[in-house]
Amino acid sequence: MPGPCNSHKKRKSKNRDKRSKPRLSLESTSSESSTDSQHLQTPPPISSILHTPPKVADENAGFEEEDSSQELFQKPFIYDPGNGHRVRDTRAFLSSSFAAPPALDDPLCAEFSQDEILQMLRTVLPEETALILWYNKSRSTARICPACQRLYRLGDTLLDHTSLSEDRARCDDQPPLPQLKREQEISGLCSAVCFILASYNYPGAIKSAWGNTADGMDDDAWDLLNSVGAGNINSSVSVGLGMLVRMTRLHDLGLAQLCLPDVDFDAEQALDEDTLWAHGPVQV
User: Fold this and answer.
1) Per the confidence metrics, is the pTM higher than 0.85?
2) Which residues lie in Basic residues bias regions (predicted)?
3) By C-alpha distance, which of 64, 27, 28, 154 is closest to 100?
């Protein structure tokens, strides 16, 4: 008979061997994984390889956004109330393409177009009035009315300030007065209403000065125009318009007396006329 089978014992011994094997701890697994990770390293990002300059905060970014937003909501410098275009902002208009260029082919306009003339006008007139007068004297036909800021050209048929749109045809049939044409060329004042408004401080000189220079005015009116005035002398706009009327009666705007206050140009002109007549006719 065969002896006892030891297969059961062998199975038990195998099970004991399996149970007797020690389990790996967390520390051992971490150490092994760390050793493996030393050999397999993740490559650095590209941003660390490529040199990128640090971002610098733009201090003017906020101001640029504010300026752009202000430009969007800024009023246009030209508008039309119904009887002609008006200039709301003279400085913005002069720097735009709507402004006519200086007439450099005209010697007198080219002389007035110099920046030094504008600087001298700013010393005696308000800023807006000085810019308008400088523009009118340095352009041959383009004009801005100093009183109502109407934008026009010499020879244009202009609606009266009290005229409605249906009166346009009637205004086209009426020729402008010769005094008005001369006044538009001399000072840029576009209408009789604007001239009266500009000469408000000198009511006694309005009739004689309307469309005339100093040579065509009587002496009393010219003396009155050179006085302080009797109107609203506390308003800078009123005083500036009255001074503009006085300056535009002179061909050089009185800038020669402004630059050389000690020289009596009227006396020198009278002396030259006396010496001219004293020499008698020129012998040919």
Assistant:
1) no
2) 7-22
3) 154
